[in-house]
Amino acid sequence: MRHDVPSCKGRKTPGQYLCRSCWFRLTPAARRALNRPDSGAYGRLRALYRQLEDGVPLGEIEVSP
Ligand SMILES: [Zn+2]
Questions:
Q1: CA 39–ligand 1 middle distance (angstroms)
Q2: Cα 54 to averaged position of ligand 1 atoms, centre (Å)
Q3: Does position 49 have pLDDT exceeding 90, yes or no?
Q4: pLDDT over 90 at 47, yes or no
Q5: Residue 34: phi, psi to the nearest 5?
Q6: Cα 15 to middle of ligand 1, angstroms
Q7: How far apart are CA 9 and CA 28, in angstroms?
Q8: What whole-number distance in Å separates Cα of residue 65 and Cα of residue 14?
Q9: What's the 48 CA to ligand 1 centre distance in angstroms?
């Protein structure tokens, strides 16, 4: 899995997907879904990265809950 986010130039804390400013541009629903540590977490992370690579704006990224 890729860990670099093309649109994210900010500094990331280890263990976080995006820098703080990018993270808070996601929708609250997407942040809630990505924070949930259940068996679907890996799939949601992949969905996030796929949309980032496709150039989807941060505020329009959808992650299934
Ligand atoms: Zn960023």
A1: 26
A2: 16
A3: no
A4: yes
A5: -70, -20
A6: 14
A7: 21
A8: 24
A9: 13
The conformation of residue 26, written as its DSSP 8-state character, comes to S
Measured CA to CA, the distance from residue 59 to residue 39 in angstroms comes to: 25
Distance from residue 5's CA to the centre of ligand 1 (Å): 8
HSE-up of residue 7 (Cα within 13 Å, Cβ side): 20
Q: What's the pLDDT tens digit per position in 18-44?
A: 888 889 999 999 999 999 999 999 999
Ligand 1 midpoint to CA 17 (Å): 9
- Band of the pLDDT at 2, cuts 50, 70, 90? very low
- Give me the residue spans of the domains in the chain: 20-60
The proportion of the chain whose per-residue pLDDT surpasses 90, expressed as a percent, equals 46
Distance of CA 65 from the midpoint of ligand 1 (Å): 22
